[in-house]
Write a structure and sequence with these properties.
Elements (H helix, E strand, L loop, with lengths): L2 H67 L3 H26 L5 H29 L8 H81 L19 H46 L6 H16 L3 E8 L6 E8 L10 E2 L4 H9 L3 E3 L9 E2 L4 E2 L3 E9 L2 E10 L5 H79 L4 H54 L8 H31 L8 E4 L3 H16 L2 E6 L6 E4 L1 H17 L5 E8 L2 H5 L9 E9 L21 H7 L5 H11 L3 E7 L3 E10 L7 H7 L4 H4 L33 E5 L3 H13 L3 E5 L2 H9 L6 E5 L7 H9 L9 E5 L6 H8 L3 E4 L4 H13 L1
Parallel strand pairs: 10-12, 16-17, 16-18, 18-19, 19-20
Antiparallel strand pairs: 1-2, 1-8, 2-3, 4-7, 5-6, 7-8, 9-11, 12-13, 13-15, 14-15
Length: about 950
């Protein structure tokens, strides 16, 4: 009888007994299943639902007690939301239970619970309504007592329902246990009988097959697992399943022998790869701290030649462009003085020049007889193999390497050479970049000195123009008085009326001259702003790039130089902005927007901006805010915060020890009225900034509110500053309808008081604000001045908490930079190229349109506004006239940051607007928005 028949007979008997056993077990298990289904799916779920209803009910009860007694406004709202959610869940659970009950008593208990819970819900709704109305816990006491009584009834009914369901479940469980015990008895009997039958069958099968298996086992034991190159075979004596096992084993033995050979080949390749990686890492380590290309060339060829087994080598670097381009030898290995290879060659000249032209490596093994000999101490030997390879960076050959060896270069050495040269191009570019950065740093320092000289000239011209403006204002006031006198005399005689008419015409003429003078001043400030911001833009961008420790290749000292340049540029930008702000106030072109602000957040804002300044100077900093100060206040929040920051900056600046404090309280309108008109304000706030600093004498307290003025020359020399801060504070305060005064004694510290009204409706025009402000407050009251001025930026670093996306959306994006200033183009080109972008440039609108017509697949345009020929406005208008460029992002860049420029740019077709000097992070953020959209 064959093995297969033996197996079928034996397993047939086993399956017969198992079928009988399983039939009875299935019958018994069906009974158990019915009982357990009754318990789990019916009774247990009903008990579980009742428990969940009770938990939701109890949680709602706790939340309503918490909302009524202890919760604040936000917690109360959260508690009421939880109560509503629980109410919905309870009604859903009740509906689910109602559809599954099949017992009369259970239905009766659930109906009783529904009725009681509905009554409880009505009381609960009344309590919630009173809580929302703001009633106290005492007002809710009667409802809460009613709620507790109904809650007790609801819980009691639910407990009765749960107890009933648990009792039914217990009876069903007892019946299931009895069925289970009966089944266990039968199973024990059937298992014993099955074991006996199966044991007899298995013994018979084992004895008949053990002989053949022993022969197989003997062969397997003789296998040498340490050497699988030769595996013994099992002789095939039968055609049954045992014979099939023997044939399968023989096939497996053959596969193992093949696998063993492949494993040896793989191990050899891994060893070669490790050899390559180790030497590539060694050369990469050598690149560190190399800042000169000649040093790089010498070290590279000296290190590479021994690794390649070369006996002779030369390193050439590309110099020049176009027709003047050639490759110059910078280093050699084992060369014989001046005769060690060619000094230079052109692209395509000779075999090495041809390799450079084709950008391909070449290995020569048939060496000419007149080739350079390898020189040793004993004589000269001809090489057997020559390797010529280009160094490529961004698809451009930047260097060439040639090696000669006394042995033929192996495949492993050739692969190693290719991997080393892949990174060498980047290293050469980085080293040349460092050399270029050092040159740019020197140029940047020279530009900074030139810019400082221009800034001093601008400040002098601004002072002269301010004096002229004051003189014209005086003349206008005199003419107004003359006009009033003439109107009074007009009633006396007609002749005097004619004289009055002549005087009036003269007055209008001078007023027109004053207006024209203000216009010229405004245009002058705008143009000077453009001329200063344009070079300042490139200085700030380049110095920011150089000072970045993550990207810069400069040493720490050079990075510090770049940070000093950037800091000086930022100080100069602050000065330019202050002068522009003051000029805008004087000509009435500074916009103020009255809107709602939260006064309760003011102490936290001041702490965040000045706590670390106080800590640095070891000065106490305290802020007090009265409870009666309204939380909602209507003013221009930006100007309001700038006034407070300027006042606090002065306080910290001129305080060496002691404290600086801020007191915020609701102002007495009668007290405010002695300084300024109070008509039209809903309420007033008084903010006092007190310090224990150097103070100021009485005779200087009016002077310091004038532009470019400080307490005295010694103060300016010791503490620095431009003398604009307090002038801007008072001018901004006037625009907001408020006023700034001071109380100070020299050596005793100072107290600045800032009065500001809440104006829900704002001012209909700027004249209302100016009419409310006193021009003679300082002269009429001795307490109306300030200690010292100086619009110096405080030592405040407000960190930008943007969760920046570190992914690079700029890679392979093509940007067109349109600017007539080569310094800006250079700065933007380097900054954006560093982010992985491709840069195209145009110097005016005509070149921009020409590049777009050529179809260069531009992703975004950076458009300067002030350009010769065709300016930015006209260029953007012409671009938008073409439908194919309707959605092309255009970002306008301008240094002439005057009122209305942004709206004018957007109207001309700009997608966004950024003013110069550019902040690199701001520009990249705007680009990220438009490129990702």
């Amino acid at each position: 009888m064959g093995f297969k028949k033996k197996q079928m007979l034996g397993f047939g008997l086993i399956l017969l007994f198992l079928a009988i056993l399983l039939s009875f077990m299935m019958f018994t298990l069906n009974n158990l299943k019915s009982s357990m289904t009754e318990i789990v799916e019916n009774r247990y779920e009903k008990v579980q639902d009742s428990m969940e209803i009770r938990q939701l009910f109890s949680r709602s009860d706790r939340e309503i007690l918490f909302a009524a007694n202890d919760a604040n406004k936000e917690e109360r709202a959260e508690s009421l939301e939880i109560i509503n959610e629980n109410h919905s869940l309870i009604e859903s659970k009740i509906a689910g239970l109602s559809g599954t009950l099949n017992k009369v008593k259970a239905k009766r208990l659930l109906k009783e619970f529904e009725t009681q819970y509905a009554s409880y819900s009505i009381t609960e709704a009344e309590i919630i309504q009173k809580i929302k109305s703001g009633n106290s816990s005492d007002d809710l006491s009667s409802l809460m007592d009613d709620q507790r009584e109904k809650r007790t009834k609801v819980i009691s009914t639910m407990d009765d329902f749960k107890d009933y369901q648990e009792g039914v479940m217990k009876d069903t469980l007892n019946n299931s246990k009895q069925t289970y015990e009966d089944m266990i008895g039968f199973v024990i009997f059937a298992v014993i009988l099955s074991i006996l039958v199966i044991s007899v069958t298995v013994v018979w099968m084992i004895r008949s097959t053990s002989k053949d298996l022993q022969s197989i086992t003997k062969v397997i034991k003789n296998i040498d697992f340490k050497n699988l190159s030769v595996v013994p075979r099992i002789p095939v004596r039968t055609n049954d399943e045992i014979g099939d096992i023997a044939r399968s084993f023989n096939d497996m033995a053959e596969s193992l022998e093949v696998y063993n050979q492949k494993e040896k080949d793989f191990t050899e390749k891994i060893s070669e790869q490790n050899w390559i990686q180790t030497r590539v890492a060694d050369i990469a380590t050598m690149y560190q701290r190399i800042v000169d290309v000649e040093v790089l060339a010498d070290r590279f060829i000296t290190r590479l030649a021994p690794m390649m087994g070369a006996s002779l080598g030369a390193f050439y670097v590309k110099r020049g462009e176009g027709e003047d381009m050639r490759f110059i030898k910078l280093a050699s290995f084992a060369g014989d003085g001046e005769d060690s290879g060619r000094r230079e060659f052109r692209m395509g000249e000779g075999l090495i020049g041809q390799c450079a032209l084709e950008k391909k490596s070449k290995v020569i093994e048939d060496i000419p007889e007149d080739f350079q000999l390898v020189t040793t101490g004993l004589g000269e030997v001809s090489p057997k193999s020559i390797a010529i390879a280009p160094v490529v960076f961004e698809d451009e050959v930047v260097a060439m390497v040639e090696l000669a060896s006394l042995e033929t270069f192996t495949k492993l050495q050739k692969h190693f050479l290719n991997q080393v040269l892949d990174t060498l191009g980047i290293t050469i570019n980085n080293v040349e970049g460092r050399m270029e950065i050092e040159r740019l740093l020197k140029d940047s320092q020279a530009q900074t000195e030139e810019l400082q000289a221009q800034s001093e000239e601008l400040q002098s011209q601004s002072e002269e123009m301010q004096a002229q403006s004051e003189e014209l204002q005086t003349q206008a006031e005199e003419l107004r008085m003359i006009n009033e006198q003439l109107e009074e005399r007009n009633r006396e005689t007609e002749e005097k009326s004619k004289e009055l008419q002549v005087a009036k015409l003269n007055l209008e003429k001078q007023a027109e001259e004053l207006k024209l003078s203000s216009k010229y001043k405004s245009e002058f400030m705008a143009n000077m702003s453009h001329e200063l911001r344009t070079p300042l833009n490139s200085i700030l961008i380049l110095s920011e790039m150089l000072s970045d420790p993550n990207d810069s290749k400069l040493n720490e000292e050079q990075q510090e130089f770049a940070r000093v340049i950037n800091s000086s540029g930022q100080d100069l930008l602050t000065l330019i902005n202050d002068i522009l702000d003051l000029s805008k106030v004087e000509v009435g072109k500074l916009e103020v927007v009255f809107d709602e602000m939260n006064m309760s957040e003011l102490p936290e804002l001041l702490h965040r901006n000045f706590d670390h300044v106080a800590k640095k100077k070891n000065i106490d900093f305290k802020i007090e805010k009265d409870k009666n100060v309204p939380d909602i206040f209507f003013t221009d929040e930006q100007r309001f915060q700038q006034i407070l920051k300027n006042l606090l900056s002065n306080a910290f600046k001129f305080t060496e020890k002691g404290s600086v404090s801020v007191q915020i309280k609701k102002a007495d309108e009668e007290n405010v009225a002695q300084w300024i008109q109070t008509k039209g304000a809903s309420n007033w706030v008084e903010i006092k900034v007190t310090d224990t600093g150097i103070g100021i004498s009485k005779d200087k307290q009016k002077l310091i509110f004038e532009a470019f003025q400080q307490g005295d020359g010694a103060t300016m020399r010791k503490y620095g500053g431009t003398g604009l801060g307090l002038s801007i504070c008072r001018e901004f305060a006037k625009l907001l309808g408020g006023w700034v005064i001071v109380d100070s004694e020299e050596g005793q510290g100072s107290t600045f008081t800032f009065f500001i009204p809440s104006m829900p409706e704002g001012f209909k025009n700027a004249g209302e604000a100016l009419a409310a402000s006193p021009e003679v407050a300082a002269a009429s009251h001795d307490d109306s001045a300030a200690p010292f001025d100086g619009q110096e930026e405080p030592d405040v670093v407000i960190m930008d908490e943007e969760n920046q996306n570190k992914a690079k959306p700029f890679c392979n994006k093509r940007v067109l930079v349109v600017d007539d200033d080569h310094r800006n183009i250079f700065a933007l080109k380097n900054a954006l190229k560093h982010e992985g972008m491709e840069i195209l440039t145009a110097e005016n609108g005509y070149e921009c349109l020409e590049l777009l017509e050529k179809g260069n697949d531009i992703d975004v345009i950076l458009m300067d506004i002030m350009m010769p020929g065709m300016d930015g406005y006209e260029t953007m208008t012409r671009i938008r006239e073409q439908s194919k460029f309707e959605n092309l992002p255009i970002i306008a860049l301008t240094a002439k940051a005057m009122k209305g420029d942004r709206e004018k740019c957007l109207k001309a077709g700009a997608s966004d607007y950024v003013s110069k000097p550019l902040k690199l992070d701001q520009l990249l953020s705007v680009l990220r928005v438009w490129l990702t959209n």
